[in-house]
Specification:
- The chain has four helices and eleven strands.
- The protein is α+β, with helices and mostly antiparallel strands.
- The longest helix has 22 residues.
Length: 286
């Protein structure tokens, strides 16, 4: 039962990974163990700017470089493989990579502005996580990230074969979201390196890119029955009772207004006409 629980946790909840290269230094160092959240993607969570993610090799990214540990004796090797399989030891053999998300679907990421900074949707980034002494990038690029993909870079910019090195490939070096294993949350070992890994505050001032098909010149504060895709917006189940209540009050108000105006026509008008004739007859009799 304990082994089954460990296997379920590793498959669906949290998995440990060992870092074999220095592409994320100084944030994550060689030999560090990170815990990766694999649960939230099952509920529709997508990578956000500033997240550190583990993803499967899109093809040709993994150069096979690592720490190069020696061969273990027979028995020890099989024991480690078993513990790795159930998630009690991190895997260093899978073709998984770890990078930081710089831009998401719809974003335009460029290098570099006049100050040498990377920009996302025109906003320059102050990146405190970059390896000391590294420039944001020595490769110039301009990429519009397709929907459902992410643009990733290592924190050790001078030692990271990331999206910048695959610009000529399909997707211009972006990674499909479906290849993301999960979000690296924390360095779990060694304890002296314990720290959280997300840096979303760096991207807090970055505005979202306009959605494809949005009407040009539309005010960002305008109100319309149509959404940005030109479809009529329907009330959600939570909004439906409120909408129906407002419609009902509006109809009651309209009936009352018609009743007040009926004095100039309708039944109220006939009563007024009879009263006028009665007054005229009384005057003639007098």
């Amino acid at each position: 039962m304990a082994l089954l629980i460990a296997l379920v946790v590793k498959t669906f909840l949290v998995q440990a990974f060992v870092i074999p290269s220095g592409s994320m230094e100084q944030t994550i160092r060689i030999g560090d163990r990170v815990l990766v959240d694999k649960l939230t993607p099952w509920f529709g969570s997508k990578p956000e700017r500033g997240d550190v993610v583990v993803f499967r090799d899109p093809g040709g990214w993994d150069t096979g470089q690592g720490t190069g540990a020696g061969q273990d004796p027979v028995g020890i090797k099989q024991g480690k493989q078993f513990l790795t399989f159930i998630g009690l030891l991190p895997s260093s053999k899978e073709q998984d990579l770890i990078k930081r998300v710089i831009a998401v679907g719809g974003d335009t990421v460029k290098c570099c502005d006049k100050d040498g900074k990377i920009t996302v949707n025109g906003t320059p980034l102050d990146e405190p996580y970059i390896h000391p002494g590294n420039p944001p990038s020595q490769i110039e690029f301009s990429v519009r990230v397709p929907a459902g993909r992410i643009f990733v870079m290592g924190d050790h910019r001078s030692d990271s074969a990331d999206s910048r090195y695959h610009l000529q490939e399909a997707g211009q070096g972006t990674v499909p979201e479906k290849l993301v294993v999960g979000r690296a949350v924390v360095i779990a070992w060694p304890f002296g390196h314990w720290r959280g890994l997300s840096e979303r505050d760096t991207f807090a001032s970055v505005g979202d890119a306009p959605r494809a098909g949005a009407r040009a010149g539309a005010s960002p504060n305008s109100v319309s029955l149509m959404d940005q895709d030109g479809l009529i917006q329907l009330p959600t189940p939570a909004e439906l009772p409120l909408v129906m209540g407002v419609v009902g009050l509006r109809r009651m108000h309209d009936r009352r207004q018609r009743g007040e105006r009926s004095g100039c026509g309708g039944l109220g008008g006939r009563r007024t006409f009879r009263s006028w004739r009665a007054r005229e007859t009384t005057r003639r009799d007098r």
